[in-house]
């Protein structure tokens, strides 16, 4: 259970998020949509622990979230880092090595176990045939599969996905949707996924959050932050409301509010 209690995020005078509260049960699949720059990635970084709220608190199972990432929370960004001189298999296994030693070296039985685990994960994400290749030999879809395998080797309970499929072609995206849904069900993950695509949000999530500013001061565009303006159970929301949200998302870009 994740409890988000009145969190605010400010950078200097710039209020990014204001007074967000929500409760998320284990196994929910939350998709987050909102105008560019409204703070969705910042929100994910607070769940990951690389950023802390300016005010308020996030708790997991009643305990404050640790202020650095740990194995409980895995993350997949659209842009992510790999070691170019390591093979695909080694890039997955090394995540386990970093967890164990902080230096990234494993020896003997531990090394073999990490490689076996990595191989099994590559099989699950459909990348076995590329295990001995190098990251720059992978297509965009394959890179995202690698990123997912890297996140999963630490067996996270919570998976954070920040627009992981934004750059992929529609056919490959559909394959990735199937993969993520499959992993979510099999591993009983709690997922938070940012997307620009409302349809994708509704297809994948069990619950959709729309981030937007509740109030706007044209004289002082940074004075107010975004909140969760809609919290919708998927499957129980009519097409009319979806159309309305889609229109409001394209209209209320924070860029326009700030510069327009
Ligand atoms: N470390 C930082 N210092 C100062 N401002 C920041 C920092 N990180 C993010 N911001 C600002 O916070 C705002 C929200 O950024 P964020 O990346 O969370 O938005 P987003 O909704 O994920 O956008 P997008 O959909 O374009 O990825 C932006 O105006 C950004 O410039």
From TrEMBL:
Alphabetical list of CDD domains matching this protein: ABC_NrtD_SsuB_transporters
Domain spans labelled ABC transporter: 2-238
Residues in coiled coil: none
SUPFAM superfamilies: P-loop containing nucleoside triphosphate hydrolases (SSF52540)
Superkingdom of the source species: Bacteria
Alphabetically ordered keywords of this record: ATP-binding, Nucleotide-binding, Transport
InterPro entries according to UniProt: AAA+_ATPase, ABC_SmlMolc_Importer, ABC_transporter-like_ATP-bd, ABC_transporter-like_CS, P-loop_NTPase
GO molecular function, one term: ATP hydrolysis activity
Protein name: ABC transporter ATP-binding protein
Organismal lineage: Bacteria, Pseudomonadati, Pseudomonadota, Gammaproteobacteria, Cellvibrionales
